[in-house]
Amino acid sequence: MLTKKGKYGLKALVHLAHLPAGQLAFVNDIAIGNNIPKKFLDAILGELRNAGFVQSRKGKDGGYRLARPADEIKVGHVVRVLDGPLAPIPCASRTQYQRCEDCNEATCQVRHLMLEVRQAIAEVLDQRSLAEMRDIGLDDLTVARVIDELPVTVKVQA
Amino acid sequence: MSGRASSIIPNSIIIVGGGASGVVMAAHLLKSTNPDLRVTLIEKRPHFGQGIAYSTLLSAHVLNVSAAGMSAYADDPGNFWRWLHGRGLVDQEQTPQTPFYAPRSIYARYLGELLDELEAREQPTGRLRLIHEESLSITPTASGVEVALANGTSVVAHMAILATGHDEQPAQGHAVRMGSEADTALDPESRVMVLGTGLSMVDAFLALEQRGHRREIVAVSRRGLLPSPHRKGNPIKLDVADIPLGTQLSYFVGWFRDLIRENQKAGIDWRDVVDGLRPFNQKIWQNWPASAKRRFVEHTKAWWDIHRHRMAPEVYAKVTQAVQSGRIRLVAGRVVGITPGEAFSVDVQSRHSQLVETFDVARIYDCSGIVRDISTSSNSVVRSLVDRGLARPDPMRIGLDVSANCEIIAGDGTVSRKILAVGPLTRGTFFEIDAIPDIRIQCARLSKQLLG
Prior knowledge:
Structural class of chain A: mainly alpha
Strand order of the largest sheet of chain A: 1-2
Shape of chain B: globular
Order of helices and strands of chain A: HHHEEHHHH
Oligomer: heterodimer
Distance between the termini of chain A: 11 Å
Order of helices and strands of chain B: EHEHHEEEEEEHEHHHHHEEEEHEEHH
Strand content of chain A: 5-15%
Largest sheet of chain B: 6 strands, mixed
Low-confidence stretches of chain A: 154-158
Strand order of the largest sheet of chain B: 3-2-1-7-15-14
CATH superfamily of the largest domain in chain B: FAD/NAD(P)-binding domain
Mean pLDDT of chain A: 86
Number of helices of chain A: 7
CATH architecture of the largest domain in chain B: 3-Layer(bba) Sandwich
Number of strands of chain A: 2
Number of domains of chain B: 3
Distance between the termini of chain B: 30 Å
Shape of chain A: elongated
Mean pLDDT of chain B: 92
């Protein structure tokens, strides 16, 4: 599942992908513009820097920018760094496997299906670049619009 | 051969290079049932299936991969083992799962016989033609390609696939290559130096043993590391969803070290972790930024290679015994000066103490690996493609720049539809593409791509 951390990280990267090449953004601006708690954002950007997706500069004119062109950074690669192995449920991971207390993983059909689901997740997220995500026109998001137009009381929470 | 063909035959493909990768490529193309297919395999050496790796006659030179991994066919992994079994070359009670490291000369025989069988089978169809001649150049024409041969004639086809394998560059400086003309008779009581401590050094040691050489072999490389031995194991299971892709090298290495550590805590051998990563190696490489690839080649590859490219346990036992007895001396350092004379005085600066030690040796063997700058290739076909801008080196210059579909990329970035490449030449794009288990998959995929 995409955690808040993963979601915030992607939002921050999309923010940076909007900047002209080479220009840096202040952490504060990214935080305010995307409604992300500043302290959390600091930690997230630090991890993204360690993995080589963003670069930072200290000082008065400091800030963050993408380390590579936005079309070279794949969404799935970012999510793995922030959230660990792509997995719909914790037991459907080979390296970060967490055993479910209440079932037998060898015979659990749910887990078997979820292992298949994670391949599909990887296939989608590893094909999409930050540039593509940045350029998604809001008009194209028919599904999202329909959800947004639902009465508030039954609105699906992300 | 009648010189220039008058018309282009549909579905005609020339394979330039008839070593292991050329034979494996031909075998996969000929699995097609298309009756109009025409495959021409061109090799300058007297025998097909015997490139640099498999032309050794020494029985001590065994494969570095167990028999089960060496089938020529991607979809029939048992093929080589059955061939061995059929000729009584493995113990009858052995199973395909028993590790068995066959002599490389036996493997050359396997490829040779496989090609003979294909030739006999295709005799009535005319789908396979073998040419013993050196290829000089490939030139794209309006309808296909023309391959010029050293005898002054040429062959034409729709496409050409380069399968020229490892580059045979002359040794550097005063060093000679094992088995080359410069490798003349040697006093068995003379000390020799080997540049490199990897699998090629091991081959050199085994060859020297065979020739009765007895004195010290000084083996020098930057880190002085010996490759590890194989051990029968079970590669761990990984999915692509588990593996961090597209990160900086240090991040990936940190993840991989942690993965090994966690598995070792659970009693799992590091080899099973290294081998578990294998199905994803090309994907990992292709997703790295250029800076990570460069760093890997410069700093990490030496470590990777000794863990990933291992040797048969029997060979490892022989080598470590030689190191313990002082027959082989491993030196981590670099050569800083060579004074030629009756013998060579070689100054080697230690990696650790920085002190310079001088070795007097009768001969220096170059076993420093096969990755060199491709634009200075000794292969005339490769060099002429680069010189005319029809091909370009990959960003690391360890091979030719090719697309994910094995198509050669020209100097101006144009992707060729007519000239393709397989095997070590494509390592800039496919990373680990030196060994049969990887090459056969590449050939199977390319065959499907071209012939459906």
